[in-house]
Prior knowledge:
Blueprint: E1 23-29, E2 32-37, E3 43-46, E4 49-52, H1 53-56, E5 64-66, E6 73-77, H2 81-87, H3 97-106, E7 114-118, H4 124-133, E8 138-143, H5 146-158, E9 169-173, H6 176-179, H7 184-189, E10 203-206, H8 215-220, E11 228-234, H9 237-249, E12 253-259, E13 265-271, H10 275-315, H11 319-365, E14 374-380, E15 390-396
Parallel strand pairs: 7-8, 7-10, 8-9, 10-11
Antiparallel strand pairs: 1-2, 1-6, 3-4, 5-6, 11-15, 12-15, 13-14
Helix pairs in contact: 2-4, 10-11
Amino acid sequence: MEATLSFNNIFTIRSQSIQVGDTVIVYKSRDNLSSIVIEPGKNLITKFGEFLHDDLIGLQFGSKCLSRTGSGFTYLLRPTPELWTLALPHRTQILYHPDISFITSYLDIKPGSVVIEAGTGSGSFSHSIARTIGCKGKLFSFEFHEERYEKARSEFKSHGLLSNVGGPIRLEHRNVIKNGFGSLKDEFEGTGSFKKKNNLADSVFLDLPAPWDALEDAKRVMNRSQISRICCFSPCIEQVQKTCQTLQSLGFSEIVMFETLLRTHEPVSFQRMRVEDVIKKLENIEVKKEARKKKQRLEAQKRKNLKTTSKASNTTTTDATEIASDKTRDLLVTKISNLNDDSSAKETEYTGSVIGEESHKLKKDNDDLFDENHINSCKPAVMSRGHTSFLTFAILLPLL
């Protein structure tokens, strides 16, 4: 793989230290990354403090860099397609690497492959494919939106990925749904390294709102001397249905759809329990159950006594008797409340002592979570990324 990346780009930085002009990924947190180009005299201001570019020059990639005041810090990472996807400026919705890696594998994209991409967008997929195909491959990328095209062109050029600076990406401003893939076939059948006829695209990736309208033109530029593959990226199932119908009518085979869902897990460490601790916890559960039953019985007796007292007060005709009944009822309620308070206090005292012991143990064990008394495991994260899009794949068989 390394031999295919001989052209000069941001992913082939060989220096171990940061130099002027290098693109650096600034890691602030797991979900907060950005990119900067090192220029003398400039500075980077974040919520963690101010960082001067002059102070970054000469530091090792991966270094922890303190702010000017020393109150904050950040990490300076070497750019990779995976990190660039997390740090790039969003011009559109982007593909993330769970989808990108699956597409790359299923389309059989490898060093030297010729790939067509319709819908450049923010360039996340383009950067990853450029690394995969290397200097011997070609990526023909089409973007219909002029402003996004200009920004992508400037970005690819500064990263050393555009064809006119020795990179594998050839970017064109074109609406492929209305105008097809233009002179792409002439590009392949012309002079230079693509002189051999029928040496067309090995793989096609369509990230379009209506991919079915571009399938016929895509078929014309696909390599028919071997099995070629296509993928359509669509967020809605209705788009998938229409795409599948069109693929079938055009003679594509092995049509299949996938959805890539990522489940993030977080590391956890919990204390290895002794038999005595388990027995104590079970006893605590039984005590709580008995206390709950006792409370329920007291509440039932309280309701019964109140009902009896109410009936007695209705049959009494004198004010003195009513007053006596009220006093009796109040006295009874007070006694029952005292009983409840006593039982609650005892339960609280018991459970409080147990909780206090557990808290003391946790505090004591926090000093070393990875000793023999702890078990390391993982659990699903509270928040996970949901649906992005559906991936519809098909193959085009070679002509006999």
